[in-house]
Amino acid sequence: MHSAQELVANVVTLASLPTVYLHIRDELDAPTGSATSVAHAISADPAISSSLLRLANSAFYGYGGRIDTITRAVTILGIQQVHDLVLAISASDAFSLFAPQHLDMPRFWRGSVMRGLAAREIGRNQGMIGVERLFVIGLLSDIGHLVMYQTIPELTHEARTVATANREPLHEVERRIAGCDHAEVGAALMAQWRLPTTFVDIIGAQGNPRLAGDYVYEAAMVHVAARIAEADQENESSTAAAERIAPVIWSLLDMEPASLRRIRESAELDLSAYTALFFPNLGNARA
């Protein structure tokens, strides 16, 4: 049996965040941190700078090519949103060379984008402020599976096979077979990367949102977003997907199960374009 910390320790040297992200995080934490210093840190990495400008000028952010420098990007988007976008870019790059057994990477990242879009749409539906952070948290919420498929591929594959065959919750089967589940592993990686507590607590409690403390509401959103992404990949109906979500989750969010269909449809509208935007080398592959 394995622990989440053990699995993360085995990949952290292979999947580390770049120096530019660490500098941005330090600037955010520092009392003297400024937009100018954040822009300077990003500009030191041409690849991340290019990706950030491509995202900032995409149709989804609505600036129509008017953001031509990193300084302007930081000024218009704000330090926090730039932090989250650079984190998304950095995390995907950190795992870009991974080719785990039993895991189709284009399918995995497409599902991750769907999680992010669905989480953001739920946040919008609830009238939340700062829903772009929900997109990034949703995008990273299944990253524990990347670690598990890289380190214990046979056990992880077995757990998914058993869960599917017996229609059991995947996280429960993973704990029984592997000793830990993908949410625990994801949270351990977020903690190892020293990401904000928001990421650690929400991702760690996505299977049981009531364990998320101050972030129970957001964890419930990610929980629903994960079910939507699974339904998309398994061609499951929205009605069936909604039925697999416990009533306590709907009550916690003050949402009706019937709303899942509209949220899913809205997320699906942007799925291909967002996948191409964040992962241009993947194409539109779908397993």
TrEMBL record:
SUPFAM superfamilies found in the cross-reference section: HD-domain/PDEase-like
UniProt cross-references to PROSITE patterns, sorted A to Z: HDOD
Boundaries of every HDOD domain copy: 14-209
Top-level division of the source organism's lineage: Bacteria
InterPro entries: HDOD, RNase_Y/CdgJ
Protein name according to UniProt: HDOD domain-containing protein
Organism of this sequence: Aromatoleum toluvorans
